[in-house]
Write a structure and sequence with these properties.
It is a single chain. This protein is an all-alpha fold. The protein folds into two domains: 44 residues; 32 residues. It contains four helices and no strands. Helix 3 runs antiparallel to helix 4. The longest helix is centred in the N-terminal third of the chain and has 29 residues. Keywords: Membrane, Transmembrane, Transmembrane helix.
């Protein structure tokens, strides 16, 4: 009778343990890659930054009003900018 080791494996029990470890590492890498790609593809912080970059039309008027109030621009420039933005 030929006995080849643990569970009939020709290489013995250590081969089964090594193949189990490699299988776990392989699937961990695959899952990690998928999670990384999904996080890069869908980043809520980037969406928030993009929304912050969108300037509302009233924001332009508020800016020129502030600049006029602080004396950065005179009345003629204020009226011209207000006309251009309307």
């Amino acid at each position: 009778m030929h006995y080849y080791g643990y569970r009939g494996s020709f290489f013995g029990p250590s081969f089964d343990l090594i193949s189990l470890i490699f299988t776990i590492v392989f699937w961990a890498l695959i899952i990690g890659l998928i999670v990384t790609l999904l996080r890069k593809h869908h980043n809520p912080e980037e969406e928030k930054e993009e929304k912050e970059l969108v300037i509302q039309p009233n924001q332009y008027l508020d800016t020129i009003k502030r600049r006029y109030a602080e004396g950065e621009i005179n009345k003629k420039e204020y009226e011209q900018l207000k006309k251009d933005l309307s």
